[in-house]
Design a protein that fits this description.
Helix content of chain B: over 70%
Largest interface: A-B, 32 and 30 residues
Strand content of chain B: under 5%
Radius of gyration of chain B: 17 Å
Helix content of chain A: over 70%
Number of strands of chain B: 0
Strand content of chain A: under 5%
Number of domains of chain A: 1
Structural class of chain A: mainly alpha
Distance between the termini of chain B: 17 Å
Shape of chain B: elongated
Oligomer: heterodimer
Chain lengths: 157, 146
């Protein structure tokens, strides 16, 4: 993070392009992460509840707690790094805007609570699946939007 | 650089994320040792007396991503101590190196059990407890520096 803070972007085209590159990659990571979750656990209430609670009519077993927890463990790790990078660069470029503070707070809170809500849904009921779905989609959309704002500032200014 | 204090937000949240990662990691480890069918105390006793057998394949499967993930995570957390004015660089260096060593010991601990060098699972429990404590101490140092 230190290099992000110290370098003057006007005279550091390499750093500017490197930042654009990593954010570009992360933008596609956020899209693919949604697709991956759709494949692994589902992205609608009915598929998700079948994954988490099983379906006795179709003889489908619920997901094993080990498998779900491993997914949550990995999600937390990936979210930490991806959000840290996006948030740090966003702060670097948009530090004069009042909204920056709240956007960064929202991004981190959504990223942290999404995996936790999935575990809560597994142990409780279908209502938390809806909340998980909303936070998951909102978190990813926010991250993508912030990535686009960064790219706009880096490439088109 | 103006508004440097905004960087306190990602650093503070990083501490929470790392705690959540540590908790889910410990939970996963206990589940692999039979937590689902027993309580925590029973599981800990089971690990200490007769840890679950693990093949070299199982060990490599778990150790490989953890070598990368733990190494990177310690680096990211510890490098924030470069900005600290409350804790000396020398002390930060010592704790960071200790954390890297303990993490390596923790990842490799199950290898001693797998190869039959140690019959009891106390080594894994001890290394895990030590790793979590030192990591929490490092997180505390970063939090104190904020």
């Amino acid at each position: 993070m230190k290099f992000l803070v110290n370098k003057d972007l006007e005279h550091a085209s390499l750093l500017k392009n490197l930042m654009a590159g990593v954010v570009f990659a992360l933008f596609f990571y956020f899209i693919l992460d949604v697709v991956l979750h759709a494949y692994v656990i589902g992205l609608d209430v009915s598929t998700l509840s079948t994954t988490l609670f099983g379906n006795p009519d179709e003889f489908m077993e619920p997901i094993l707690i080990d498998t779900l927890l491993l997914q949550v463990h990995i999600d937390l790790f990936m979210a930490l790094f991806s959000i840290m990078i996006v948030a740090s660069i966003y702060i670097r470029l948009h530090n004069k805007k009042v909204m920056t503070k709240w956007l960064v707070h929202a991004l981190f809170i959504l990223g942290l609570f999404t995996p936790i809500l999935l575990m809560i849904a597994y142990f409780t009921n279908v209502w938390f699946i809806t909340i998980w779905l909303v936070t998951f989609i909102l978190g990813h959309l926010l991250a993508m939007w912030m990535s686009l704002l960064i790219l706009k500032k880096l490439l088109f200014k | 650089m103006k508004k440097l204090h905004l960087y306190h937000i990602p650093i503070a949240y990083m501490l929470l994320y790392v705690v959540a990662i540590l908790i889910s990691g410990i939970w996963l480890f206990l589940l692999s040792q039979g937590l689902a069918s027993a309580d925590i105390l029973q599981t800990l006793t089971h690990i200490a007396t007769t840890p679950e057998p693990k093949s070299l394949h199982n060990f490599i499967e778990v150790a490989t991503p953890h070598m990368f993930a733990i190494g990177t995570l310690i680096f990211v957390v510890a490098h924030f101590m470069l900005f600290s004015t409350n804790v000396s660089k020398k002390f930060s260096l010592r704790i960071s190196l200790m954390l890297f060593t303990v993490a390596l010991f923790n990842v490799l601990a199950y290898l001693f059990i797998s190869f039959g060098l140690v019959v009891s699972g106390w080594i894994k429990l001890f290394s895990l407890a030590l790793f979590v404590l030192v990591f929490l101490f490092m997180l505390g140092m970063v939090a104190f520096s904020l």
